[in-house]
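Exercise 3.2. Students should predict the tertiary structure of the chain below and write it as structure tokens, then compare their answer with the key that follows.

Predict this chain's 3D structure.
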Amino acid sequence: MNSTVSLGEPGDLTGFPASRPPSRLVRTCRTDRATWWFSADGRGRFDLTGPEGTCYLATDAYAAIREATRLGPVSTAWVRARELRHVAPPDPQARLAATTRTSAGRYGVTTELATVVPYDLARRWAAAFRAHGFDGIRHELRHDQRARPSGVALFATAGAADLDDGERIALTPARVRAAHVSVLEIPNAASLTIES
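Answer key:
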């Protein structure tokens, strides 16, 4: 836990900087699930509470893989059960809170918005952005060391959304390793030694 948080509570966000979503977004998904899931269960950094939720996407495969794996390591079975989805934002004109803009600092935003744990404070910021008319958040990702706004959190009705699943791209061990995440084979029983 972070006991020295300098990120404060959200206040009046009138005039907070805004941006539009990138034209292409990426998400790492289980192969048997739909792309668009808006979480409201409180496990995500920017989860809204029902009836609205938050869908988490990235601007490229590198960021999407690093966030989904939380830097791993992951098993080959984990990789086989997932794929990348390249999608267009449901609303290209969506108004996102641009948290990495210099002017966002005037409102008390720091990079801790993307790293603070537990997520309670980040969720309060998400709720404040939504209350001020934002459709989501453009932000840094905790596991993307490139220090750029590679995360996009979109707000909509909680649960699954019937939107285009986009282009499906197989997730391979090589692709995961290219994101600097280890992929490990699960040992078979014959290769294990059990000591008593």
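Discussion points: The chain has one domain: 19-185. DSSP finds four helices and twelve strands in the chain.
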